[in-house]
Amino acid sequence: MAITLYSLCGANEARPFSPHCWKVVMALRHKGLDFEERPLAFTAIPSVENGFSKTVPILRDGVHLVADSFDIATYLDEAYPDHPTLLGGEAGRALTRFVESFSQAVIHPAVTRIAICDIHDMLAPIDQAYFRQSRRERLGREIEEVAAGRDAEIAAFPAKLLALRHMLGHQPFIGGERPLFADYIVFGALQWLRISTGSVHLPADDKVSVWFERLLDLYEGHARKVA
Is 140 left (phi over 0), alpha (psi -120 to 50) or beta? Predict the structure, then answer.
């Protein structure tokens, strides 16, 4: 039975944008596994798989259902050990948790402040209402207030990637000579920014930009085709 990945989209199903779903898209391609992606709007998520999860990604693999991108990566390594590893064993899994924490604590809040109104504008009206309410509850402010410092956030964004930039001066990928799930974690955040705003807001010659472009070209340029 084919693998199904439920992901997140706005009004245009051809533009899935969730950072967490992009991690899994890249992970499945890394593993060389065939899958069908089914993009969903925010308000459609509770209707799939009998309400298995309130959020995506959700992976259906035969009788197995898995939610949460990190849990999906762990499942894929355990279920398909003869395919290229995503986490690189137990030590790699632990280090990948650090990368995930860095991405969600540093990159995701910055992307939210830069892209929140762009994301809203990508959604159908019913999902715009959901997005406004859920972000008001989560952030304690209206989305326009969150976006008020957008220009300053864009200006400050490159400095937040200093550690990654320094590391990429020594190796082509976070995973070393080839990408691992740690790469896809950070890639997912920047792909979220790219799809929602049209840019990653970094100079073209920035080491992080060069790394990101390298990942866009992987797997027959699948990620680059979504814009």
Answer: left
